[in-house]
Amino acid sequence: LFNQRNRYTLAELIPETGIPERDLVRSLMALSLSRSTQRILCKEPKTKEFEPTDVFYVNNSFVSRHYKIKVQNISIRESEPERQETRTKVDENRRYVIEATIVRVMKTRKTLEHNQLLAEVIEQLKSRFRPTPTAIKQRIEALIDREFIARSDADRKVYKYLA
After folding, report:
1. What is the pLDDT of residues 19-55, one digit of tens each?
2. How many CB atoms lie within 10 A of CB 121?
3. Taking the CB of the first residue and of the last residue of the chain, which one, N or C, has fewer CB atoms within 10 A?
4. pLDDT tens, 85-121?
């Protein structure tokens, strides 16, 4: 990129690289705000804040005796809306995992009592995450609604797998 031009503004780098702005800013931080001996890019003005008008250029005084250079990535704390969005995505993915586990257990056992099903699902998922009994119960109800499993006519605590 810097072979074509010597200087780029942040606003120019975003479309040139195709990298989302948040990720690009994090990478530029690592390249331009590290220790002076490890600074690959220079930034004008020399502030920690990044504006679209900030100019980046190659640090010509940068020297390394290594063929490969390890750049430490700087982590940016997630804002509250981003944290909430991440949480909802994780919860949604976990729902699918819980449902798949319930179906897998019921497929092998055919009929199972509620507490046994809870214990089996928790046991199988404990290496990934610890599902709450409430979440498992909600997924069981969703599977009953979608007719993957059904309650036994004789005992309401017993579930049957429907093919």
Report:
1. 888 888 888 888 887 776 778 888 888 887 888 888 8
2. 24
3. C
4. 888 999 999 999 999 999 999 999 999 999 999 999 9
Q: What are phi and psi of 12, to 5 degrees?
A: -80, -35
Q: Which amino acid is at 149?
A: I
The structure tokens listed for 22 are 């948040």
Amino acid at position 26, single letter: R
Global pTM exceeds 0.70: no
DSSP per-residue codes, 131-147:
--HHHHHHHHHHHHHTT
DSSP 80-130: HHHHHHHHHHHHHHHHHHHHHHHHHHHHHHSEEEHHHHHHHHHHHHTTT--
Question: Phi and psi for 43 in degrees, rounded to 5?
Answer: -125, 135
Looking at per-residue confidence, does 75 or 26 come out higher? 26
